[in-house]
Design goal:
mainly alpha, Arc Repressor Mutant, subunit A, 2 domains, about 0% strand
C-alpha cells in the first residue's frame, strides 16, 4: 500500500477534525470572536478540493503539509480582513511554522516510528482518529490538552489562560488523557 493511494481514497472530510484543531490553536486575540475554527477547516477543505490537482507531493506527510499551508493561507486571509494594521510577511511565515509545530505535537502524542509508506499511512490514520477523539472531549478538557500538549504551554500558562488553578488544570489534563485513551480504544475496536 503506498501513501498516495490513501490520499486518493480518503475523503477530504476525514481531515476536518485535524484541521479544526490546528485552526483553533491559531485563532487568538481579536480573531477569536470573529472566526470559527469549524468554518476555517471547512474553507480549507473546499479549497483543497478545488485545487487538488495542484498538489505535487507524493507522500501523506507532504499531503498533510499541503493542507496545513492552505489552512495557514485561509487564516492569514481572514486575519488580513480583520486587522487594522498592515500584515507583515514574517507573521505569515510564523503562522505556517506554528501550524507545523502544532501538528508535530499532535503527531508526537502517537509516538510511532515512520519507516515505511504503510507505517506512515497507519500513522496518518491514527492522527485523524486522535483529532476526532479530541473533538469529542468536553470543551474545558479539550482546551487544556490543546494548550498544553499541542500549543506547548506550561501548566501554569494553561491555568492562566483558562482562569483555573494549576491543580484544576492538572485534573483536566488527567481526565482528558484518560478519556482520549478510552475513545481511541473504542475506535480501534470498531475498526477491527
Amino acid at each position: 500500500m503506498n501513501g498516495m493511494a490513501n490520499i486518493d481514497e480518503r475523503p477530504l472530510g476525514a481531515y476536518r477534525d485535524y484541521l479544526r484543531i490546528l485552526a483553533r490553536l491559531q485563532i487568538n486575540g481579536p480573531l477569536r470572536g470573529k472566526l470559527d475554527a469549524s468554518d476555517v477547516a471547512q474553507q480549507t477543505i473546499l479549497l483543497a478540493h478545488a485545487r487538488r490537482e495542484q498538489f505535487r507531493g507524493g507522500t501523506e506527510a507532504e499531503w498533510l503539509g499541503w493542507l496545513r499551508a492552505i489552512l495557514a493561507n485561509v487564516i492569514g486571509g481572514v486575519a488580513r480582513e480583520f486587522e487594522t494594521a498592515a500584515r507583515k510577511v514574517s507573521r505569515e511565515v510564523s503562522l505556517e511554522t506554528e501550524l507545523e509545530r502544532s501538528s508535530a505535537r499532535l503527531e508526537s502524542i502517537l509516538a510511532i516510528e515512520q519507516s515505511s509508506p504503510s507505517t506512515v499511512a497507519v500513522r496518518t490514520e491514527e492522527l485523524l482518529r486522535l483529532a476526532e477523539a479530541l473533538v469529542r472531549l468536553p470543551d474545558d478538557q479539550r482546551s487544556a490538552v490543546e494548550l498544553h500538549h499541542l500549543k506547548g504551554l506550561t501548566v501554569a500558562e494553561v491555568a492562566e489562560q483558562l482562569g483555573r488553578t494549576r491543580p484544576a488544570v492538572v485534573g483536566l489534563l488527567f481526565r482528558a488523557l484518560k478519556r482520549l485513551r478510552e475513545l481511541l480504544r473504542e475506535g480501534e475496536e470498531v475498526s477491527k
